[in-house]
Amino acid sequence: MSETYNGHDHPHEETRTGAESALYASRIRAIEALLVERGILTKEEVRRQIEYMEARSPANGAKLVARAWTDPEFKARLLSDTKAAARELGIDASGPVEFLTVENTPEVHNLIVCTLCSCYPRAILGRPPDWYKSFAYRSRAVSEPRAVMREFGLELPMDVTVAVHDSSADVRYMVLPMRPPGAEGMDEEELARLVTRNSLIGVSVPLEPGLAG
Amino acid sequence: MTARFDPGDPVRIRTEDRRGHIRTPGYVKGKTGRIETLLGTFKNPESLAYGGSGLPEKHLYKVAFRQKDLWDGYAGSLDDTLYIDIYEHWLDPA
């Protein structure tokens, strides 16, 4: 399936619900049936790709972040070659698209969006949340990122620069958030539990110890 | 194939109103930013989307814009920045 995939893992429609989504689901099933009938894809390839996608989750991103917080050399590798760093932790991010990890610092906070569709580091984090694909997020994350983050509960002071990354082409982005205060002395596994999916997109920051379940 | 632009170069995004699978969103068209980094070369998505070979590959650049230059009445810091990945054939020197 990768031949026809080209990293273009994005639907070009807004997130839809109800009857409309049923319409799109039937259309996709019809297209799949045709592709199989014409011998372009096999059912097995479709099944394998679904399994690959379902096996990804934000837990992968949390593992990468927790390792980066505890191992400065790993952090340097994560920032310089995200694919290779992911491979070190057994996360297969091979494929035609590139990955970049952007680091939050006391001076700069990063936020990820794809205004054109829903480009997302799926090979590492799995499928994006529905709101990430919504027209509202895609348009507002670029034009009023601070208001969007405020709605997610993150109020950034004006002396922190907001860097928005519109992943419109062949690179997928993940945020390396800052280690929260009070997380000293925690091991990698405990740290990983503080790293939420939203903090990997940049709409919020990791949980503070005591708040994580 | 050498890259036409270097980090720091000011660039303007072309304003072509082209239909199809273009990867340049409207809100940056006609706007001036600067090259942040070169991201490498990739098959041209405008060709791949229609069954083409995507060749020749195109240089892809991360372009930085000041948010204040993109949006009237932007609510934020003067330093707030938008980064977006743009293929070379959408860039003119500014």
Most strands sheet of chain B:
5 strands, antiparallel
- The CATH first-level class of the largest domain in chain A comes to Alpha Beta
> What is the CATH homology-level superfamily of the largest domain in chain A?
Nitrile hydratase alpha /Thiocyanate hydrolase gamma
Beta fraction of chain B = 35-45%
Number of domains of chain A: 2
Number of E-state strands of chain B: 5
Gross geometry of chain A: globular
Order of helices and strands of chain B: EEHEHEE
Q: Residue ranges of chain A: pLDDT <50 for 5 or more in a row?
A: 1-7
Envelope shape of chain B: globular
Q: Biggest sheet of chain A: strands, sense, closure?
A: 2 strands, parallel
Radius of gyration of chain B, CA atoms, in whole angstroms = 14 Å
Give the N-to-C terminal Cα separation of chain A: 39 Å
Major interchain interface with per-chain residue totals: A-B, 26 and 29 residues
Strand order of the largest sheet of chain B: 4-3-2-1-5
Helix content of chain A: 40-55%
Number of strands of chain A: 4
CATH class of chain B: Mainly Beta
Pfam families (chain B): NHase_beta_C
Protein name (chain B): Nitrile hydratase beta subunit
InterPro entries (chain B): CN_hydtase_beta_dom_C (IPR024690), Elect_transpt_acc-like_dom_sf (IPR008990)
